[in-house]
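hi! just following up on the protien thing from before. the input was this:
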Amino acid sequence: QELLSPGFNLLTILFKGVFGFAAVGVINGVFMQETMKVAQTDDIIMMRDVARREKVHAKKMHNFFQYTDHAHDAPITRSEWKSVMQRDDARHWFGAQGLPVRDPDVVFDLLDTDKSQSISMDELVSGVSQLQGVAHQVDIAVLKQNQHYLVGMIEKLMEKGARGASELDDKSLMAVAYTATEEIANNADRSD
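and the predicted 3d structure came back as:
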């Protein structure tokens, strides 16, 4: 019978312990990965995640209103918006929200949906939510559809003018352009 040194016994126990924990770690990792995969496809979890993100977004926009030294119901005017957007920290904060503000007037006009020359809390929450991030396929499809519609309207105007049916004056051109713009706006509202 051969005798083994106590060092070899210690090495054997260490070997079994390390590889045992490694095997348990791999099994645990596979189990967690599969659990996360199932959780990501669960509709209820996804709906809760969207609701949580919307709540966090609304809270951030509320904090921005407080940052601009406004009460809850006081809208932000264009001049107030411009003065706040001159601060680097405000521009960086919006950039971190996924909405880089390069031209404050353009962003103000996009957020001021009711054209009141002020941004309400609701306009800020919904507007920033729509503008932040990258364009989605549906956004590009709506733009493409609107462009095709406008090109068609221009072609009709050109045909009408070329036929000499009637001389188009500025008022009739404006009426056609207004009608086209209204129809595009309605199409965009329906696609949202």
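The longest helix spans residues 6-41.
The beta strands are 76-77, 118-119.
cheers
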